[in-house]
Amino acid sequence: MGRKIVVTGAAGFLGSHLVKELIDEGNLVVGIDNLLTGKSKNMIDMNSEKFTFIGMDICSPKLLSHPLLNGVDEIYHLASPASPRSYQAHPLKTVEVNTLGTKNMLELAMKSDAKIVFTSTSEAYGDPKITPQPETYRGNVNTWGPRACYDESKRLGEVYCYLYHALYDVKVKVARIFNTYSAGLANDDGRVISNFVTEALTGKDITVYGDGTQTRSFCYVTDTIHGLKLLMEKEDATGEIINIGNPAEITILNLAKKIKHLTQSSSRIVYQPLPVDDPTIRKPNLEKAKRLLNWEPTVSLDEGLKATIKAYKDKI
């Protein structure tokens, strides 16, 4: 018999991938999304016998009494604008969903005695002064800038998780996710791999911000989802924050060159000024994930990029 699982942000990039896997495993899934940045087309081929959808804002106090949310076993709280373009377009909603929305989901977990995974972010580390970043690192975050609505609301979401675990013994686990990408990611969402691949395939200039020496660590979606499911499953992860990402670090300029090479593109690489508070380094320390979850990523950047390029070619 499958479990009854709630996924918030079910129409988003990560959420829709996760929902499909959970349904395939025989679970009953209730997806919640207000479609602010999620797309209903991401849910078109969900198995209707195993999937029900609630088109509501997770900050709504009415949600907790929704009849579909009785007897829930697990909650994956993924709802939030996630790319700089989308959270800067909806800054106040981003703050709400990561704070009030998180509190609402923790209330549901407490009421149902359910396990809950909150997807936080590597942005909780801000522009880090140490690398790779372990979960014990407290970060270097600016509260007064255009990225703060995302970084700081995720950090406050973690505080809510800590309090509900400490005060009410809610079975909470926090994932700090590093850049995730896939062949299925919308090619207009403003994230760097989507941008570069789309630009390379259409012959447009590949735009690098700053001098391109800033680094990122990219994790293919199947690895990220596997990490989240292990986080939910493992008792030892209760009350813990765990990095989920790929430690293979690459500069943005080298990423642009790699994508140009893999697409055999004639695009030029051009430079634009660096956005405010853009982090200079990103590389997860995975010791805790290996120890508590026995998890590490298996898809290399080249493999993941080839799959992404092939899917984008078919779309274009």
UniProtKB/TrEMBL annotation:
Cofactor (UniProt): NAD(+)
Boundaries of every NAD-dependent epimerase/dehydratase domain copy: 5-245
UniProt GO BP: D-xylose metabolic process; UDP-D-xylose biosynthetic process
Matches recorded under InterPro entries: Epimerase_deHydtase, NAD(P)-bd_dom_sf, UXS-like
GO terms under cellular component: cytoplasm
Keywords: Decarboxylase, Glycoprotein, Golgi apparatus, Lyase, Membrane, NAD, Signal-anchor, Transmembrane, Transmembrane helix
Statement: the UniProt record of this protein carries the keyword Membrane: yes
Entry's localization field: Golgi apparatus membrane; Golgi apparatus, Golgi stack membrane
Topological type in the membrane: Single-pass type II membrane protein
GO MF assignments: NAD+ binding; UDP-glucuronate decarboxylase activity
Gene3D superfamilies: NAD(P)-binding Rossmann-like Domain
Protein name: NAD-dependent dehydratase
Organism (species): Sporolactobacillus laevolacticus DSM 442
Upper lineage: Bacteria, Bacillati, Bacillota, Bacilli, Bacillales
